[in-house]
Design goal:
Elements: H1 2-34, H2 39-49, H3 52-61, E1 65-69, E2 75-80, E3 86-89, H4 99-107, H5 115-126, E4 130-133, H6 136-143
Parallel strand pairs: 1-4
Antiparallel strand pairs: 1-2, 2-3
Protein name: Zinc finger SWIM-type containing 7
Organism: Nothobranchius furzeri (Turquoise killifish)
GO molecular function: zinc ion binding
């Protein structure tokens, strides 16, 4: 019985990212058409991502997400958190330096994303991400955490 449960849990975990990906596609499609997210997708967002969904939507409303791009094509996202602290997130590896990401996602494996990374995905789906160009040197400094652009 124990093996069967473990196999089922593994299967469910492997589907969750696909569900999240489809949810972002659905949000993009409906937002492009109606410039709002319908209630059924908001409920799905809350179901998939839990309490951080509402917090992420608040960050989206506040236009807290900026995409930094360099001439070499590197990208990083900066999110101003609810406390005013700036977090640099990387979608390529699903990483955020916030304590919630470290504890909830990495240590306890209780969520896919923190509110900051979720806000980045939502801003991209809704095409409301602020854009900023930085030099390759600024991006290198940002990536090495030696200086903010």
């Amino acid at each position: 019985m124990r093996r069967r449960r473990k196999a089922t849990e593994t299967t469910m975990q492997s589907f969750l990212p696909a569900v999240a990906e489809q949810l972002f596609k659905d949000i993009k499609k409906t937002y492009d058409e109606a410039v709002q997210i319908p209630d059924d997708l908001l409920v799905a967002l809350k179901f998939v991502f839990g309490s951080c969904a509402l917090q992420a939507l608040d960050l989206v409303d506040q236009r807290s997400v900026t995409c930094l791009t360099s001439p070499s094509g590197r990208k990083a996202f900066q999110v101003v958190g609810g406390s005013g602290r700036l977090y640099t997130c990387f979608l390529s590896c699903h990483y955020c330096p916030c304590p919630a990401f470290a504890y909830t996602v990495l240590c306890r494996n209780q969520g896919l994303l923190c509110k900051h990374i979720l806000a980045v995905y939502l801003c991209q789906a809704m095409a409301v991400t602020q854009q900023e160009s930085v030099s390759d040197q600024q991006m290198t400094a940002l990536l090495s955490r030696t200086e903010a652009p």
